[in-house]
Write a structure and sequence with these properties.
Length: 430
């Protein structure tokens, strides 16, 4: 009995062991199938499986189908993006954290002299060696675009703008400005030529009008008012032409302005005296008060730049303040405050008035050519509509900017803000 029990247990163990071995061999077989499929995963070669493995392979098949579908959609989206990006006339390039080229469009290749297939992952400074571009790229001050010569055409020019993206990436945008610059040059030349051609005959007409007005009996009394009006309009046209020529000259001068040191105390006193003369000229009526021109200037603060250009810019701002600050009677004069001081390592020339003020909707357009808030008022004060445009271009040439604040009925403040690089500090004797 004991031997039979032992024999039956052994047989049962052998049968159980054999079954377990077959089960393990089966799993090892399907695992090997899965392993070899992963080496070359294609949908048509996924094993069918058996038992639990049938469910595993079916789930894998479903996953792969979804994955392939998503891949097809992604490729289609990338293809559409690539077609759209290459259709944009501007060149586009994405730079990595080390300024290496991660992607670019065909226009970027043509404009910047790149070849994406061979230049991918190369630092862009290895390919564009212009010193101004390298300084612009590493400065990380991208608020203003950079002008750059076309790499393959010395007569063409580009405008480079860099936008900081997430993950320390950058989007570089290159724009071909050649045609726009040609049109702008043609416009400047046209304005300059027409202004020159008009100035001579207008001077002759104005001279004859003045001569006839001064000759006794040459103009009948009933026509004298007409001659006065003609002289006024001839003078207004002459001022417009002079301002057009000034603006054209400033725009055409692409070189850097003169960097000589300017004695600001002397210049500002000169501007103050001119302002007093202008105020007296506008208010010849004895019943009207003359403007009070206040000057507050830091005697230790000078500036590097073009004396003629900056005098023109500052004088324009002061004359505007006077023209748009009316005086009602002898006891109510307009106040003009001229200030020159240092603030936050920047030199600021400001003109504050107590005039009519400007609505907020007009401020952004004040530096446009011939833009006027009140056309009738501009004609009365002798304005040409070009003064602030001249100021803006002069300040741009001096790396400065114009700031305007105003409140209707209270007054306005126009400030020219100069960078630290143009400031000169001088010693003043006690």
């Amino acid at each position: 009995m004991f031997l039979w029990l032992i024999s039956s247990a052994t047989t049962a163990l052998l049968v159980f062991s054999s079954a377990l071995l077959l089960y393990l061999v089966s799993h090892i077989f399907w695992l090997s199938k899965l392993y070899f499929w992963f080496k070359n995963p294609t949908l048509k070669d996924i094993p069918e499986g058996a038992g639990l493995w049938e469910d595993v392979f079916n789930a894998l098949l479903k996953y792969e189908r979804n994955n392939n579908l998503n891949q097809i959609k992604l490729n289609a989206a990338l293809e559409r993006f690539s077609l759209t990006a290459n259709a944009i006339p501007d060149g586009l390039a994405i730079l990595g954290s080390a300024n290496e080229i991660e992607w670019c469009t065909t226009n970027a290749e043509n404009q910047l002299g790149l070849d994406f297939n061979s230049d991918k992952n190369l630092p862009i400074v290895n390919l564009i060696r212009d010193s101004h571009f390298i300084a612009y790229l590493y400065s990380e001050a991208y608020s203003e675009p950079l002008k750059l010569k076309h790499c393959r055409n010395s007569e063409a020019s580009l405008e480079i703008q860099i936008i900081q993206l997430a993950s320390n990436q950058k989007l570089l945008i290159s724009r071909d400005m050649t045609q726009l610059e040609k049109v702008d040059a043609m416009r400047r030349d046209f304005i300059a030529n027409v202004s020159h051609e008009l100035r001579t005959p207008l001077t002759v007409v104005g001279g004859f009008l003045e001569t006839l007005s001064d000759m006794d009996g040459a103009v009948p009394d009933n026509l004298k008012n007409y001659f006065v009006m003609m002289q006024e309009q001839a003078g207004r046209m002459r001022r417009i032409i002079e301002d057009l020529l000034t603006l054209s000259t400033i725009e055409s001068n692409t070189g850097s302005p003169n960097n000589s040191e300017i004695d600001m105390q002397s210049l500002l006193r000169m501007i103050q005296n001119d302002a007093i003369g202008l105020s007296h000229g506008l208010n010849q009526d004895a019943t009207l008060a003359k403007h009070h021109i206040h000057l507050d200037a830091d005697p230790t603060l000078n500036l590097r730049g073009s004396l003629e250009e900056l005098r023109s810019a500052f004088s324009n701002l002061v004359s505007n303040a006077i023209r748009y600050t009316p005086t009602s009677d002898a006891s109510n004069s307009g106040e003009i405050f001229i200030s020159w001081h240092l603030q936050d390592d920047q030199a600021i020339f400001s003109v504050r008035d107590t005039g009519i003020g400007i609505e907020d909707k007009h401020i952004d357009r004040l530096t446009e050519r011939f833009y006027r808030v009140d056309r009738s008022r501009s004609r009365e004060t002798g304005g040409t509509g070009l003064g602030l445009s001249i100021v803006k271009h002069i300040l741009i040439r001096h790396q400065a900017k114009l700031s305007i604040t105003s409140k209707l009925g209270v007054g306005s403040t126009f400030s020219a803000i100069f960078p630290n690089a143009r400031i000169v500090k001088k010693q003043v004797a006690d």
